[in-house]
Amino acid sequence: MDPIVKVQGLRKTYQSTVAVEEVSFEVQEGEIFGMVGPNGAGKTTTIECLEGLRKPDHGEISVLGVDPQQDSHFLHIHTGMQLQQSNLPERIKVWEALDLYSSFYPHTLDWQELLGQLGLEEKRNAAFAKLSGGQKQRLFIALALLPDPQLIFLDELTTGLDPQARHSIWDLVREVRLKGKTILLTTHYMEEAERLCDRVAIMDHGRIVAIDSPAELVRKSGGEERLIFTLDQTLPLEVENSIRLLGRLEIEGERVIIQSETGQATFVYDVVSLLTNHDIHFRNLRTEQPTLEDVFLKLTGREMKD
Amino acid sequence: MKSLLKMTWIETKLFLREPVGAFFTLIFPLMMLFLFGSIYGNVPTQYFGGRGTVDISVPAYTAMIIATTSLLGLTITMAAYREKGVLRRLRTTPISPLVILVAQVIVLFIMTMIGMLMLVIAGKLVYNLQFDGNAFSVLAAFVLSTLSFFALGFVLAGLMPTARTAQVVGLALLYPMLFLSGAGFPRELLPESILKISTFLPLTYVVTLLRGLWIGDAWNQHLTEVIVLSGLLVLGVIVSMKTFRWE
Hints:
heterodimer, A: alpha/beta, Rossmann fold, Alpha-Beta Plaits, 2 domains, 6-stranded mixed beta sheet, 4-stranded antiparallel beta sheet, 13 strands, B: mainly alpha, 77% helix
């Protein structure tokens, strides 16, 4: 099957600064594809080139089989877009915005139903300016869904939202995907990319530094898992030595941290078996998995900052 | 077409929900009319060439409404729509972006018209307003004046970086113009030196044209006004098309 989005060698500069360089990727039908990276990494520039809002300096872009610069009208009918910096008039009511935008498209979903699906039924008559950040984003998602598009662009969808609103937006995005839509999103929250995306492209300084499923990225370059527990007694020397064969051992007072070095799948089981065999009573045992945050740190040599 | 109608309807509602704009277009001119009408009445005087204060105020206040809706209403709305990203969002839909501009012009034109009609009706009912002109001529002059000032408003909206600066600059242009052009006060009250300055103000030509046609002047007595306002319209459209930005 042809990819829904295909980008080859994209480059975009603003005056002397290079915003995006050598960006290439494909998005397959039905997946949630995320571009993740710190602010200024080139995510929004890339997505806006795909939306036809910006003209690339170099590179080939195909979205739903068309060049966004050549056929933006086709894209505007067949894709839904949520933009990072956009707004509605302050005093427009929620239902009016949906009703108005419905008149722009040849074919739309029933906005009354969308209102309910997005949990905006109660806010039907509220003015746009009176909505909370989460409610505004819901409305923008509703507007993006209105033309019943194959492909939906979501740019920094949950930036500035509180954790609860963020989680409910994630649920919403997953529901949208279940309807067979393809979603291309950008985010600077690693957790969001990890929870939501089937595949992510990690961007830094205008380039894609890695591209794969979150699990695979973590497996390949996230480092190893860690096992942490507390002890009331000191570890017998013999047990300590056996543990050192399984991983790197750190003891901080009564807290014991063991980091796997080999990435063996049975790491946790091996350590726990060893402890129980020697009748050592551990408490507060937990494991820490590496995250995309660790992947970013490892690939770029620096922390992700908001 | 369906989207233009819907957009026009929504923009009408938005206009009426914005208390400041609606006040200056629809209510404030009426308040002025009743204020000066109650002070001076509408007794014909030699001073106004045999007309009363209300007779000469109705066309002048109409010019005031035209200037206010153009330089404040239109300019601030368009600058705010661009600054806040309202235009940006519209750009990602299949409709022609011109739809919102046309809707804006239709709404403000109708509101300006209603403002004028309310002045006429109030003048007629309360002060026995005198009208000696040809209604179609006055209407044509009204259309020309309104459109050329709207063009000016679009130029300003294109040049101003934010809604806030649009508001400040719009007011800075509007106030002197209202005082000096004869829109806010009868021009007969102004000294000779000020009247010279007023020839540089576009609103002066609107006031002269509307007042003249109102009392039955012929068009050929007002060729200067027609040429100036038509020039403003053509120039305004060209410049605003050059300076217009979606974001």
